[in-house]
Structure formats: structure tokens, C-alpha cells
Amino acid sequence: MLVWLLPQLLWAQTPAESAGSVAMTTDTTDAPAASASDKPAPAAVGSANPVQPTRAARNAASGPAPEPRFAIEVKAPKELRDFLLRHLELQRFRTFRDLNAPELNRLLAQAPDNLRDLLGTQGYFSPEIKVALEPPAPNLTPAPAPAPDSRRPSLGTVMLRVEPGIQTRIASVRVYFRGDITAAPEAAAQRAEIERSSALNEGSAFTQAAWDDAKSQALRALTTQRYPGGRIHNSQADIDPIDHSARLCLELDSGAPVQVGELRINGIERYDPAVVERLVRLAGLTPGSDYAFDKLQAAQQRIANTGYFDSVFVTVEPQADGSPAPVVVQVREGEQQKLGFGVGASTDSGARLSLEHTHLRVPGVGWRALSQVKLERDESLLSTLWSSPLDAQGWRWIASAQTERQIDSFDTTTSQRLRLGQTQENTEQDRSFFLQYDRARVKNSVLNPLDPISTASALSANYGWTRRRFDSPPFPNSGYGLGVELGVGTTLGQERRPFVRSLARWLGYWSLDGEQQVNPPPGTAPPDIATTSANTPVSSTSSLGRLALRLQGGAVWAKHDAPIPDTQLFETGGDTTVRGYGLREIGVPQADGGVAPGRYLAVASLEWQRPVVRDGARSRWESVVFVDAGAVSNQPGELRARVGVGAGARYNSPVGPLQADLAYGVTPKSLRLHLTVGFTF
Prior knowledge:
Layout (H helix, E strand, L loop, with lengths): L22 E4 L26 H9 L9 E5 L2 H10 L13 H21 L6 E7 L22 E7 L5 E10 L9 H10 L10 H16 L7 E10 L4 E9 L6 E7 L6 H10 L10 H13 L3 E8 L8 E9 L3 E10 L3 E10 L8 E9 L2 E9 L7 E14 L2 E15 L3 E15 L9 E18 L8 E13 L6 E14 L17 H7 L10 E12 L30 E2 L5 E2 L3 E15 L2 E17 L8 E12 L2 E10 L4 E8 L4
Helix pairs in contact: 4-5, 6-7
């Protein structure tokens, strides 16, 4: 029985197309399907005479690293010279100790064909190539008799002169279909998506890499929805050497559509299997629905996020008779209780110690409880969060309590917060309703030594909504996120005053790479970060990166004498808000030189994230330049922006982006280092 594992992708491997023929055809009718975990080893471009690696390994292991037996010089346009030097077949033989002059001459006779193959992958099919060997310069100084194991003298310098000629341009791209997708009305949108994903701009330069990428994108768009067994039936690039044009043709065979069948859960004993069933159904994998890779991915992520399991695998098993394919969920349960201890540091809060305890199924209620103790330089926190299992609509009850102590300049704020409500979370959207009690006690002996303590408390009803439409978190290249919070409440104590609190935040990304798409579109499998970051070829436009714009605004509406708790007001500044300023350093100025929380907040940040290109390929590093601005006040007309500018570096690690920024705060006229880890919204 054929099994597609999550993630499931099909790849077509096509050999280098002949540079001398008018029609270049790659027939992949019998190409087998492979999962995303099957990463093919990179093949040398234009390899006509592959050499077994064991010989090179044997030569390298027999002694110190050998000196090159000959040098190579390439006379060609700059953009081609580096490419040819990197992939030239002759490079593999330079350090062979037993290479002699007759063997080198044989290799030189094959070099023109190798160069034509390489140039053909870049769209040059009519090159002029000259190969010559310049002997080594004579050494007039008598040399002592060589030792028996001495290295042989240099064989000279290989001179390669390349005139590439006119580069071939794309004249047309055509996509044809076979199988069920050809006429199925339900697949009309998918056919359009496949044609869009495989499109190459007419008139643009033809390269084998771009053509292979277009075919891979089309195949992903086919196999991630309805047709996991789809394949490339035929692909062809017709090259006209007279007018230097390429006419591209791709034929896809969808096969039969696959529908979702019954659910099978393996490996669950300690926890309630109904939770897994609800999560799979909420992800859209209902019996009779069409196969969709993004639904499999969403179900797997939802189940993993429960914390009940150490590993989760969601697979679909297509049936030979075309009947609905069972969805199989294989899990390995985690321990019911977990204890974690952490030591860390941040540029905002200094050293940090944390202790975290998780109980996945509290006896008597079956809820999950997460309790935490955190100690930092200017902040300490004790909290517990309890949540119920999901109901049939994906909602869960939440109950939380926390007490916190934080020091800002001469203010010491001790606060308590209680919350009770419901929340619904999924990949793209979160919602929550809850009642919240806040109490804050602020001590400042400098401003008012006779009465240094002020206390305020409030009760509010709140609604929160978050929408995420990023193309590929945690490394988004385009998309946006929007979050809104709205609360209505009243202060408590002797003076009761109603108030309304709102907070909105927005984060948007815009790719500057034109039609080139580094990250996959929504619904396709995210590529492995090592492959994407380190080995993705780039053109003159694909290294421009992206712009990131972050906006945040908040307001508390109440009478001026309403005693609003400080925890319901706003401050800003720090690593993730306005760089160049310390944590919560931007607020309402006070007479003692410090700041206090205010009723109005405005924050904006514009950042240019640009990949670092090495040897024509993206690396995992990116450069960052940014400008941040933020303001806090008690009146809208008193908002005065505090600006920070700077630059930094970002490393796209397998666990998420790691960013280090050096920012200059315009108001304090000082530099500050900021470190951030991960991507969240």
C-alpha cells in the first residue's frame, strides 16, 4: 500500500538538456514519487565523465593536502566567469597527484563540451570556446634532486576563452494537463494556480535553474491539493538557435483525486482521543473532503501544540480501489508532568532565572496547568494558567492568576491579575472573551514622600482577535498580521469610573524581489531552512529582500480623575518596540526624571531585511536597517515621538531568526545593543 507521509511533495529530476540540439526534451513519465524528506544529493552541472569520489578521498587521505597540478584561468564576462569556475569539470582533477600530461590533454579535449553544457544552463547555446595550455615558466635556479615522495611539478596553466554569444530569451510557456484535473470543475482554481506558479516572464532570459524551479512549483501546486499522486508526464524546452528563443512546455498528469476517509489514531493511551479527533476535524479533514496538504499540516501542528505528545505524524493512505483514504495519526505521548529550569539574559532585563512546571492533566478536572516563576534584574513574576480540553467548536476555558513586581526608575509597581474566559486558537486566527481583574500598587518615595503609595484596581470585560496571513512563518517574505483588543470596565474602590481600553497592532511584509518567490505560497510545504537559506541561487533582483512595517496604537478613554491601574495603561521602548531606548523607557515624563504609563500609545517601525549573498547563493545571514518611533502621553495632542535608528544582522537558524541590532536613540543621544530571538505575532 502506497503511503504519503506529511509533509508530502513530489519532485521531478531532469538531466541537463543538450545544448547542441534544437529541441531539448525531458520525459519523466516513469519518475517515482518522493516525500519532502527525500532530499536528492546535489549533482554536478554538465558532468560528462564523473569520477568516483573514492579516488579523490584516497588521494586526500594518503598525505598532506596536495598542491594543484595545474592552474585555470577563464576569460569570460564576470557573471559567467565565477559560475564556470565554480562548476567546471576540470576543477575536480587539479589536485590529483598522479595526473600526467597525456591525461590532462585528454581532459582538455573534453572541456569544450563541458563548457557548452554549463553555458546552456544559462541560456547561451552558440558560444565560441578556445582552450589552450600554457606550459609552466622555466625555473633557472638549479634544484636539488627530488626526494622519492616529493610532489610532481606543475603542468602549466589552462586558458579558457569564452565568448557566450546572445542569450536565449523565453518566447512562451505552456502548461497542459492529463487525468482528472483536466475537466473537473472543482479543480478550476487549482489549474489557474498551477499555471500562475509555473509562469516565467516572456522575454526574460532562459536559464535551466529558473525552468526547473517553475516545474517544481507547478508540481507542488498539483500535489498539495486533491492529487497527491500527481506527476510530471513530460517537459520540453524547444530552443531556436537562429532567433535565440525558448518555447517551454510542461505536461502534468494529476491521476485520480483523493478524498479523506476515516480517522485512525495510534499510540494514545493516557490522554483523551476525542481531543485528537476534534483537532483533526477542525483542521478540515472531515470524511469525504478533498485531500489538502495544508489541512494535514494544520492538523499536525494543532495536535503538537496541545503539549500532550512528544511527536506527532499525520499521514494519508490512498487506496488502490479509489475509496476514501484513511487519515492516520501516529503519536508518542509525553509525560503528564514536566519541570523546566532556565537561565538566560536579555539586553532589556539583564540576567534571568525561570522555573516552569506543566501538568497536562490535573486530577479531578482534566485541565492543563502551566505554572511559572521568573526572576529578572528589575522584574519578578509568579503565574499560573489553567486551560480545559477543546470542545467540539475548538473553544477552551481558561483561568489564570499572576502577581508581578517591576522596577522602573524610582517607581516600584506590584500588581495582581485574575482572568477567566474562553479562547479559540488556530493557525491563522485567534479569538478570546474574558473577564479580568487588575490591581496595581505603585510606590515612589521621591515624588511624594508623605504619601508614596498609590493603589488602583479595575474590573473589565475584554475581547481579543488576531489574524495572521504570513506566507511562511517563522521566516515570512510577504503577508500581514493584525491584532485587536477591546475592553470595557470600571474602576473599583471609593471612586468608580467607567473606562474603555483599546489596542491595535499590525505587522506587514513586502517582498522586493519582484516575481521571484523565495518562500512557498500558503498551502505548500515550507522548504528546509538549510536548503532555502544556504543553497538558493539568486539573480540581480532576488537579493533585495523585504520591507517590514510594524504599527501599534492604543488608547484608554476615561475621565481625567479615573484611577486606572498602571497595568491597563501604556509604556513602550525596548528590543521589540522602539530600539535605541530601554525597556519601558518611553512614557509620560515625571518630575523625578523617570516616566509613568500613559493613556495613549503610538508606535511605528520600518525595517529593511536584505539577504547576504555569497557565491551567487543566499546565505543564512541577513543585513537589517531600521527606523523606530514611539510616543506615550495622557492627551492625544501631547504625543511626541521618540526616534531610534540603527542597523543589525539576522541569522535564520532552524529554530527561528536570531537578530542583533545596534540602535541610536535620538533623544538620549546614546547607542544601545538589542538582541531578539524568534518570530511571533
